[in-house]
Design a protein that fits this description.
Radius of gyration: 13 Å
Number of strands: 0
Largest sheet: none
Helix content: 40-55%
CATH superfamily: lambda repressor-like DNA-binding domains
CATH architecture: Orthogonal Bundle
Number of domains: 1
Order of helices and strands: HHHHH
CATH topology: 434 Repressor (Amino-terminal Domain)
Length: 69
């Protein structure tokens, strides 16, 4: 996940993000280290907050390469 990158670009502290997302600061820390993932229901709010897509939060820049059959 790219949450730390987008959080820092936005100038938001872990404490602020925790408050906005209605989780504790430890949850944000776990998201940023990859120890845990945000609930799927929180992904749209995170993407809107950072002005990115959910795919970009996951580090995806496009669809995976499809294999020809």
């Amino acid at each position: 996940m790219e949450i730390k990158k987008y959080r820092e670009l936005a100038g938001i502290t872990k404490a602020d993000l925790a408050r906005i997302m209605e989780v504790d600061q430890a949850a944000v820390a776990r998201w940023e280290t990859g120890e845990a993932m945000p609930r799927a229901s929180k992904l749209p709010k995170l993407a809107d907050l950072f002005g990115c897509t959910i795919d970009e939060l996951f580090g995806r820049t496009g669809p995976p390469n499809a294999q020809a059959g």
